[in-house]
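Run folding on both entries below.
>entry_1
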Amino acid sequence: MYYVGLDLHKKYVTGCVLDSQGVVVAEQRRLPPVLETMLGWLAPLGQPVAVALEATLYWAWLHDRLTAAGYQVAVAHPQQVKLICHARCKTDPVDAHKLADLLRTDLLPAIWIPDAATRARRTQLRGRAWVVRMRTRVKARIQAYLAAENERVPVSDLFSRGGRAWLATVVLPAAVREQVDRLLALVEQLDGQIAEQDRAVRELARATPEAALLQTIPGIGPFGALLLLAEIGTIARFGTSHELAAYAGLVPSTRSSGGKTAHGSVGPAGSAWLKWLLVEAVQTLKRQPGPVRSQYERLLRAKGKPKATVAAARKLCCYVYWMMQEGRSYDDWLRQRHQREVRPIQAVASVA
């Protein structure tokens, strides 16, 4: 059995091959990031061969192609690799050797690899969210131009039909008018792209039964339901609801030693998109009666708005976990959660 560590970069790949005893069999400092070249370098090793690489920006294409070529490929968490094998000397050959050795000793902190369909859905939904954010920035720029000219918008929505009519007639300096018109044209173009993407999202949501259950949560629509499913992947990979909350970056850090315990800020999110979506959903749920609102209001005065929002999002995340585990709607799950089994009090036998 041979173990290969690959340190990926944009312009080259550094490789190291170890045998089952940990002896270096082959090394390559600068392999071109071309599949044919890499397969040619690995071919003399024969089979079986296991490959380890870090989850950098460039891992997906190489993982998919090496897996299709028959190799066992594991993808490591970069931060956990750094914690396990911290060294003062850090070079590309050292990193490649480190990955191969961790794989050989079964200590590689491997991540869960979503299938191709899940990754494609993530790309689609994250792309839609990115375009919406771009449109938001463009709109904010237009409003900044108006504010600089001390123009007060007479309508609540500047980009509604009435707002656009007012914007077409307001008198602005020539240079400002030119920029505003260009940005308005860009907003219209982005509106068309978002509308087209929303149609595809709605069709996909109608064909996904799990999305219908998640849409019963107030504040979660077709896009939010599909993004939840894409970011979570298979719910079976999380043993408890708290593991899912930790993956979403909603669990505070804890330091306990010598009888003293201190809680810090929340840890890094395994999926920043999942954390963002849950926090956005809380903005709706905190205005509606229910346990999420109760959690938010209970902590608002003592902890402040940011911490109360994160705590409410953590509670919602746990609800999402059990909804997906049990296949229940939001109202149905809350209803059964509040039902308590009344057990008769058993008399304790007296001691003679």
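>entry_2
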Amino acid sequence: MREKKKARKCSVLRKWILCMLLAGCMLLTIGCGKSAMSSANGGATNRSESGFSAFRADNQKTASEGTTAEDGATEATVNTDDAVEQSAQDFGEQGADTSGTEFEQMEGVNTEQKLIKTVNMSAETTEFDTLVADVRAKTESAGGYVEKSDVGGNYGGDTTRYAYLVLRIPAEKLDDFVGGVKDASNVRTFSESTEDVTLQYTDMDTHIKALREELDALFSMMEQATSMKDILSIQSQITDVRYEIESYESQLRVYDNQVTYSTVYLDLYEVNRESSTTGTTFGERVKAKFNDNMYQMGQGFQNFMVGLLGGLPILLPIVVICVVVVVVLRKIWKKRKNDKQKKEEE
């Protein structure tokens, strides 16, 4: 019994010793970990302080260099600002011109109908000079002008002279002018065409208005530009926009001229007799055809006689040569015939 109690006491003692050893080992491990952490933190702190010192030294060096560079660049900056201000002022003055004649602002889109009228006429007359002078006078009195004039000589056939005229007549006086030409000559062909360019005109008008707004925006950007690169870029865009505006305005001026002044293409022929106008009734048509045929026969005979008489300088020598040849041949033939008869008689 005593031995069992002693054995229990020894077992409990060993357990306490073992617990004490374990506790000591744990305390020793914790102490070593804190010491290593403290060393690591100290090294990191030293490295951080060293890096910060280097960074501060670099900053001081950069600041000193920046101060020097800033002093050197101050003059260039001032020059650039002066150039920007001067360029913006120049283009601002150009932008102010947009309210003038070249860039006249439009209050709204022009919706008036735009019609281009073109007339083609062919007429004949027995009084050529009088008709040409009368056409020119009528053109001037109507407020128009002669755009092209071409007068030729002998045209051949019944016609002796011809004239090709391109006339520009105010649109509101076109009908009166055409009526006057018809009364003064015998019109053989006539055609009139009308082209509506209202849609094209309105579209160009709208484009011009949009381009002018874009131009104003570019001038505003020019005034706010701070670098030479931006100034040159905006200047290039302004040039392109102004070119487009001028191109559209030029086309509008062409349309305005064609709408205001109608174009008349007139062919005039001088004849010895004006062609008969075909009537509507049977008798009038027969009479007109008969007169035309009789005239053609007379002209044919006249042309034949003119050609014959005009060719006498060439025909007379030929006729003389032919007569001489015939006479000689007849003499030769008669001589041979007589010789043959004599031989037969012998």
